[in-house]
């Protein structure tokens, strides 16, 4: 049966991945999170799943992470910072720990999983071709600290591509909470908004691809429906993000 590791299982994307994977009883799920209790509160069906394991601890515990990754078809790196926190390093920390864990598996001569890594369309120019320049700049500033972290994490992982050879960066547009309505995987453009559940379904599709089409590539997941809910929290998030970009010290007051 196919086995998948989900890093960042209690976040919006990680939780959506687990919900999508739970739809098939054949999927073995290995969830990595800081709080087992929080995850089970968010997703009670996971507790009754016989072929599901929860690994609890900080990502810095590379030996625990290696055990989570061992024997999986794919690992979803869905650890993400949801706000424009100055000096955030969560993506880099995840990349560093994942590399360390994979080195453990490589020394054991254990097959390495495919990596499916959450990123953002704002970091791929061709995905933003239809966005006016001033809009793209404003959106970039509103998440500048997060994007810097994601960019550096990608550099870290790509620098290991001589032995970590099957990785895909998933770079969606703006995300929202909505039902699963259908998706497509694209290598040339991004569509906003996209539900977390459709993002998750697309990431699973990428993980299951055996043709090599997406290896070491950037892709976006796009909705097939034009009736995806608008993310009404986005305007306030934009204002807060710009504030923390131009005045990083303000996060200690308003964060």
TrEMBL record:
GO molecular function (one): monooxygenase activity
One Pfam family per UniProt: NAD_binding_10
Domain of life: Eukaryota
Alphabetically ordered keywords of this record: Monooxygenase, Oxidoreductase
Signal peptide: none
Annotated NAD(P)-binding domain residues: 8-209
Gene3D superfamilies named among the record's database cross-references: NAD(P)-binding Rossmann-like Domain
Similarity annotation: Belongs to the avfA family.
Stated name of the protein: AflX ordB monooxygenase oxidase
Organism name: Lecanosticta acicola
